[in-house]
Amino acid sequence: GNSVTQMEGPVTLSEEAFLTINCTYTATGYPSLFWYVQYPGEGLQLLLKATKADDKGSNKGFEATYRKETTSFHLEKGSVQVSDSAVYFCALRDTGTASKLTFGTGTRLQVTL
Amino acid sequence: DADVTQTPRNRITKTGKRIMLECSQTKGHDRMYWYRQDPGLGLQLIYYSFDVKDINKGEISDGYSVSRQAQAKFSLSLESAIPNQTALYFCATSLAGGSYNEQFFGPGTRLTVL
Questions:
Q1: Is B29 on the interface with A (CB under 8 A)?
Q2: Are A26 and B92 in contact (CB under 8 A)?
Q3: Do B99 and A101 touch (CB under 8 A)?
Q4: What is the pLDDT of residues B96-113, one digit of tens each?
Q5: Model confidence pLDDT, tens digit, residues B46-59
Q6: Is B4 at the interface with chain A, CB within 8 A?
Q7: Touching check for B46 and chain A: CB below 8 Å?
């Protein structure tokens, strides 16, 4: 079956630090990969996506590259801000599963001044 | 105005009570989903509906039922609530078809079963 594994949090960084949140996946087909972000008290919002191997998704300074050889989709940002404090979810949608998403457990990021 | 709304936002109830959580959307999407979120477990799919007449069980449908009253409305019911159904519940919507369909989430309903 499909699964997504994320690094456990919380991750605490100082403002302007470099961020990496690891994500690896297992899928039976050729999945599309996503990062969703959940700000306090809100629902999830799509942050970025990649639909095939070697694609790079990017948004708001965040980037992730679809690595088929390592089955990974690590999230990175060069300089985090306090406003980036949130929970980040890696997810996949496999071929043949319609629109169903499989989520990782989420990684809480806290950025301090 | 929010595109995906959920009511109530918070609910405390007792074991054995029947509870209904409602979801409405103004995005015109055909597909709607119900998820629950538990600490350390991410989101798990309860039920999903591809249109008014197409309802499907997700990973954890036991103890839950749903009703798709219209394209814009998708309700989740707990017929007899139990404490381990205490969780944060999210509704989501997406377009049909295509190689990629972003899901748009509501703000969530926090349910506590005592």
A1: no
A2: no
A3: no
A4: 765 567 889 999 999 999
A5: 999 998 999 999 98
A6: yes
A7: no
Q: What is the pLDDT of residues A54-71, one digit of tens each?
A: 999 999 999 999 999 999
Q: Any CB–CB contact under 8 A between B97 and chain A?
A: no
pLDDT digits (tens, 9 = 90+) for A99-110: 678 899 999 999
Which residues in chain B are contacts of A30 at CB distance < 8 A? none
Mean pLDDT of A19-28: 94
Q: How many CB pairs lie under 8 A apart between chains A and B?
A: 51
Nearest Cα to A11, choosing from A109, A84, A89?
Answer: A109
The percent of chain A in helix, strand and coil, each rounded to the nearest 5, is 5, 50, 45
Structure tokens at B61: 């449908």
Upper half-sphere CA count for residue A48 (Cβ side, 13 Å): 19
Question: Contact, A23 vs A104, CB < 8 A?
Answer: yes
Q: Which of A43, A51, A106 sits opposite B90 (nearest CB)?
A: A43
Q: What are the tens digits of pLDDT across the range B16-74? A: 999 999 999 999 999 999 999 998 778 999 999 998 999 999 989 999 999 999 999 99
d(CA B45, CA A110): 27
